[in-house]
Write a structure and sequence with these properties.
173 residues, globular, 9% helix, 11 strands, four-stranded antiparallel sheet, single chain, three-stranded antiparallel sheet, mainly beta
Length: 173
Amino acid sequence: MILSGIEIKKRIGSDIIIDPFNESKINSNSYNLSLHNELLVYKNDLLDMRAQNPTERIIIPESGFILQPGKLYLGRTVEFTRTENLIPMLEGRSSIGRLGICIHVTAGFGDVGFAGYWTLELFCVQPVRIFAGVSIAQIYYHTVTKPFETYKSGKYQNNRDIQASMLYTEFAR
């Protein structure tokens, strides 16, 4: 079952944390999240999943930044979220999709207990100018049956910044 916007609003501050929270961003069954003003791009054209791939930080100027096709940009939400007993999911807004912008490659699925900023895997089908602060994604919540285990991975939990892939840490085990 997906929570309604009314239910999301009712649960803010208890089992749903969104900081900062703005009531005007509640939709009928989701909440709009905004794009932070920083992006990361990988420095190398060839990425190695067994290595920590170097990144470069880009600040989105007030005049906007043009995303280029064929390039992956990692961004993050302005909002920090935490969910105690629900499954958070992230999707792009339809207005964003209609500009040919995708906000995630595969990582739109959250875990019960996830706390942090959402890293966005931005790519586009044609050049498009983006702006910091735009409502770029929507978070929605599924209920989960009990019993369940809470997310325990330290890899991305309680992050404070954009998170490049840490898959390389799984090879070191």
